[in-house]
Design goal:
Length: 396
């Protein structure tokens, strides 16, 4: 299999990494050269798909095209190419579903129509509240306000005459702040057949960016079934043909949906792969190549316990932080096995380098062993580099 992956950021790292685990050759395409996924691919073409008039020569020899980015202009151009091209190469993306999921306002309206539990919208909720952009990552530019005075000061500083008018303009989502464990679930398929995979746990850093993924999670079976059913319900409602992930918070005994993303996610597919052996990029290709879908209940039930976490290492300390550090500091990345005791790492570490980042993959037979092994890996890094400070902060 020869796959073209469009986008070399964090989603691109996920796509290329899992494609290589499937034994594929990978052509990576990005308008930039300094990108995290560059060190993982077999071939690289630096080009902006938005300005290339004819993409057929670039894709002529590939078996499938997998977009791994959230640039609407580039995605729209790729969809145009697919509609106009004389090539019959599968394009693993659902533009219509993505347009719904990429807007938190549109997706929240969908949840309301489907009567799916979600955080209450402002002003129908009490404080504290969250204010975040309608588009982009759920943690990017997110703000929490604990009182009406704090919100009004924000509105005044940004010259919003009335916060309610600003909210209705559709640029921001304003909703109640809820706390609790965060979980994620992926689904792949088309309206006649969907398959959900393994529920993963998400742990956040101080800026609400995911710093650690845990698989499998210790959640009651009835709640896992409930999450699977509501994920299927959303997929059917948007006529999904492709992949989507659903992020929820377990708050006061109830699962509440935070957001959906109808595109290849980052972090969680990698954790699921190491826990179960299920490769979501391979399954996504099966869908678009019309290969019969496999059922994986047994593999999920026999899963290993996996911790996937991101660290930033400097002479001053080891910092467990959100995945943004892999994009901000990890250029280019490569894969190393048995990395300071971790079974695998995706890292830009090289001998002699004293500032670097890594995504650590730790697996064990029990959750207790996995957490102990995670501590052992961090300790090994600290001792090797003679670092005193370890910083692992959550937002709560």
């Amino acid at each position: 299999m020869f796959a073209a992956v469009i986008g070399g950021g964090l989603q691109g790292v996920e796509a290329v990494y899992l494609a290589k685990k499937a034994g594929w050759d990978v052509l990576l395409i990005d308008k930039d050269h300094d990108i995290p996924a560059l060190g993982l691919c077999d071939r690289f073409v630096q080009t902006d798909v938005q300005i290339v008039k004819d993409l057929d020569p670039i894709f002529a020899k590939v078996d499938i095209v997998i977009p791994a980015l959230e640039n609407d202009g580039a995605l729209n151009r790729l969809c145009e190419w697919k509609c106009q091209s004389i090539l019959t190469i599968p394009f693993a993306f659902d533009w219509k579903a993505y347009q719904i999921s990429s807007s938190k306002i549109r997706s929240n309206n969908l949840f309301a129509d489907l009567k799916i539990p979600r955080p209450l919208p402002w002003p129908a909720c009490e404080f504290p509240i969250i204010v975040k952009p309608s588009s982009g990552s759920g943690s990017k530019d997110m703000m929490i306000f604990n009182s009406p005075d704090a919100l009004n000061k924000f509105a005044e500083m940004n010259k919003f005459v009335e916060m309610n008018k600003f909210y209705q303009a559709g640029k921001w989502v304003i909703q109640e702040y809820i706390s609790g464990p965060s979980y994620s679930l992926e689904i792949i398929g088309r309206p006649d057949h969907y398959q959900t995979f393994q529920v993963t746990g998400l742990e956040m850093d101080a800026g609400y960016d995911c710093k650690r993924v845990i698989a499998p999670i210790l959640l009651e079976e009835n709640k896992i079934s409930e999450l699977e059913m509501l994920t299927q319900k959303i997929a059917h409602a948007i006529n999904l043909t492709g992949i989507m992930d659903v992020e929820v918070i377990f708050h006061n005994g109830q699962l509440k949906v935070l957001e959906i993303d109808a595109r290849l996610p980052s972090q969680t597919p990698m954790a699921v792969y190491h826990s179960t052996g299920i490769n979501m990029v391979e399954r996504l290709a099966d869908l678009f190549l019309n290969t019969p879908q496999k059922e994986d209940t047994g593999r999920i039930n026999k899963a290993k316990y996996v911790i996937l976490e991101h660290i930033r290492v400097t002479p001053k300390g080891i910092y467990v932080e959100g995945e943004h550090i892999m994009k901000d500091h990890g250029i280019p990345l490569h894969v190393e096995e048995n990395f300071f005791g971790a079974c695998e790492a995706i890292t830009n570490y090289e001998k002699g380098r004293n500032e670097w980042v890594a995504t650590l993959v730790i697996s064990a037979k029990t959750p207790e062993d996995a957490f102990a092994e995670s501590q052992n890996v961090i300790t090994a890094i600290r001792n090797y580099f003679n670092i005193e400070k370890i910083v692992d902060i959550n937002p709560y």
